[in-house]
Amino acid sequence: MDIAVVSGLVLVVLIAVLLLARVPIAVTIGLAAFLAIAVVIGLDSATFVAAQRLTAGMNSTTLLAIPLFILAGTIMNNGGIARRLIDAAEVMVGRMPGSLAQTNVVANGLFGSVSGAAVASAAAVGTVMSPRQKEQGYTPAFAAAVNVASAPAGMLIPPSNTLIIYSLVSGTSIAALFTAGYIPGLLWMLTCAVVVWLYTRRDPELKQSLKLSLPVAVATLARALPAIFMVVVVIGGILVGFFTPTESAAIAVVYSLLLSMIYRSVQVRDMPEILLTATKTTVIVLLLVGVSAVLSWAMAISGIPSALADLMLGLTDSPTVILLIIMVALLIIGTFLDPTPAILIFVPILLPIVTEFGVDPVHFGIMVTFNLSLGTITPPVGVTLFVGSKVGDTPIEPLVRRLLPFFAALVVTLLVIVFIPELSLWLPGVLGAE
Amino acid sequence: MISILNSVLRPVCAGLFAFLLIVMVWQVFARQILNDAPAWTGPAAQYAFIWLVFAGAAWMFAEREHIAIDFFTKLLKIDRTRSLEVFVNLMSFAFAVLLLIWGGVRAVEITWTQAIPGLPFSTGQMFLVVPISGVLIALISLRHAVEAIRTGETAGDNESTEAI
Amino acid sequence: TGCTYGLQGTPETGKTMIFALDQAEDHPSYIALEAFSDRLEDATDGRWDIRVYPNAALGNQQETVQLVSEGSVDMVVASGTLLENLNRDFRTLALPLLYEDIDHQMAVLSDEEILGDLFTSLEEPNNLTVLGGFTQGERHVYTKNGPFTEPDDLNGQKIRVQESDLMIDMLSAMGSNPTPLSYAEVYTAIQSGVLDGAENNLISYMTTGHNVVAPHVALTAHQVGTDYVVINSEVFTGMTEEDRQTFLQEWQATVDHHTQMWVELTEEAADDAEAQGSTFTEVDQQAFTDGLAEMLEDELADPEVRELFDRIQNYEG
Ligand code: NA
Ligand code: NA
């Protein structure tokens, strides 16, 4: 038998069995990749290769941005900054029907534009918003659904840890990916806003809006300005080339720490606990990055990606069909896997196939991230969904029912983004970030 | 044993993270304000980071904080069975022994004398954290497995809901 | 080991060797190595062949050299800078003014007598045998503004070099202000004026597109670069005498094949560059040689280093 087949079988069977038996994902990928390598070069050598790839996979300056963005997010999560961003969002959309729901959508967008992760946003914004929404007579399920549906926009709006991971596996520029994410991220928010609007047309209960006096509005926006200014420092610094992404992440930590201390939402004695919370997330992501580097080696040595590429290219020569197949496959994969492991495992296989058809790697990164972000709000496994249900104090089942219209609308938006590359590539082109 | 381990690993992780942050902030400050890019900050941050990840990994195994997919085991109602708990921990044990201890020791041997530019350490010394973390994870997994056999206690994993 | 799948085999019976390469499939190294594999397979009745993994799929050079040393990968292409960290004598082979031209370089690298035990010196500590080298061609300086002919013209010009103290010293001795920067950033750095130019061989000059932003090429030929091909020592010494002779014979043919392709591609690159508006300037060689000779005094302070250097410089086929 061909070694690609033997090694590939070892990988697929082991990953399937161990994942389904609730073995930790990092252990699953690491063990399966190790055995697939051992099939090719022997057990003893495979141990060395695995340990070397594990550390080599983590040994990248770019990756250092991830723990720092996670830390900044954790600090911002501790009140202060999040609350001011939500107040600002309320000023911006408070006059619309369904104001609290629309505020939630915009607040997730604002939080997403200073934080690298979607889940932090769902937690921070949801914690503040769901009591307010319940007060206004929203059902907990609807309130939580709005929060869960809109939070993943933060994975597309920079900074984004998911896009950093994609940049790492695809070798594309972070500045290009970050700028490419803005318009699709805004489209994600817009889609949610439209669905909320449709809900309010059907249900007059949701229609009320807030009346804010102009002085209060101005004062609220002014109070949020320092937090919003962080976007300018972090993203502007990267685009102008003043900071590397890693340095701008360090600046984000210092800036959010200073703000939180001024707002008295974080004190020095809170730091160890904050560092440990950020450590947990960092370790989860980085162990996945490490074992995925072992997996990439396993796939390279046995020639699996090129065998699969030949197989797919043999099926059809239509780029539209290939992209549709890939998008459907990723939607299914995303129901079980979170974006980080899914990108680490599948992008090395899929990217060479789509570039063969002239798809831009940056555009592909945006559609993959958009697609897999949808997976975080779907059962059976979805981090954003779980967090949203927890902070919204509502069971999964009614929440998912309220989520369905959002999900359907977002799938349509996904197709728009897949087939109109300019939505992703126009901004990086204009800003010279290619 | 596990609580002692935790009380050691927590300050180690927090300390490494703080060190990493301070080095990165210093690098930005030195480059942008002092106009002088020190050679040691890059590798120092990089190696603190790798130590943080492996020390943190041991700590997370001790606290049972990993992401796993329990959808199917719940569906089949075997999620909390003793045999599944033992199986899961034996897999973690195998991972630690094969990749981290065996592979880690070989990596340390081969790179022990390989100098790191700008730092007074060798690559091999940097790699030491891999087998150390491996020994801890192997012991923790065995301990969890034995607990499951002896007491029938199947804690399962904490749902880790932090951002990924 | 009793595994019958895949790339495993023993040196005694022959095997499929794993070759880690950080170049792409259209690079002369890849093409030469694929042809090497085909000829080797024919010549040994299918006992030996090579599977080349391009595009750094198995890791970067430093990592893959470790893998060859350990035995999980059989062969690899390694830069002189990397081998210099294992044995400082490899630095001598990277000095300026050492080789007259590519023919001189390839003659020296194929001559066991002149190099002494340099190529076997890594066997004992590192389990690595150096088979020989692929030329990386003559390196020239190219700039955004120009043309220039004298070291004085280069004064204050920021020229990108690899992160190697030897290259920094060399470009300083040539009058410029050498600036180490990672390869990927060079294009935009020259375009935006952060750098004034860079130095490389003409093939890379064209494949990187640097000709667009730095059209003035000064034919300094300050160094003739070498990439070394390294094999795991146990695999090499474990071959039967007959197979090893066949292997070495085909290896020499591979080097010749590579050199021939390199020369042709360099000519093509020069033609393309000219067609796209680059200018080539002959420089005042003596003026540059004087500057570099001064730098060489320090490098050749050790009599043994000087002896090897002189032996190579004065070598005549
Ligand atoms: Na974001
Ligand atoms: Na999901």
TrEMBL record, chain A:
Protein location: Cell inner membrane
Pfam hit, one: DctM
First and last residue of the signal peptide: none
Residue ranges occupied by any TRAP C4-dicarboxylate transport system permease DctM subunit domain in the UniProt entry: 12-423
Transmembrane annotation, as ranges: 31-51, 63-86, 106-129, 141-168, 174-199, 220-243, 249-266, 278-300, 320-337, 342-359, 365-387, 399-420
Entries under InterPro entries matching the protein: DctM, TRAP_DctM
Keywords carried by this UniProt record: Cell inner membrane, Cell membrane, Membrane, Transmembrane, Transmembrane helix
Bilayer topology: Multi-pass membrane protein
PANTHER family named among the record's database cross-references: SIALIC ACID TRAP TRANSPORTER PERMEASE PROTEIN SIAT-RELATED, TRAP TRANSPORTER LARGE PERMEASE PROTEIN
Name of the featured protein: TRAP transporter large permease
Native source organism of the sequence: Nesterenkonia rhizosphaerae
Automatic annotation (TrEMBL), chain B:
Family the UniProt entry places it in: Belongs to the TRAP transporter small permease family.
Major location (coarse): membrane
UniProt keyword list: Cell inner membrane, Cell membrane, Membrane, Transmembrane, Transmembrane helix, Transport
Transmembrane stretches, start-end: 40-62, 83-105, 125-142
Protein name: TRAP transporter small permease
Domain Tripartite ATP-independent periplasmic transporters DctQ component: 21-150
Subcellular localization, as worded in the UniProt entry: Cell inner membrane
Annotated membrane topology: Multi-pass membrane protein
InterPro entries to which the protein is assigned, alphabetical: DctQ, TRAP_DctQ
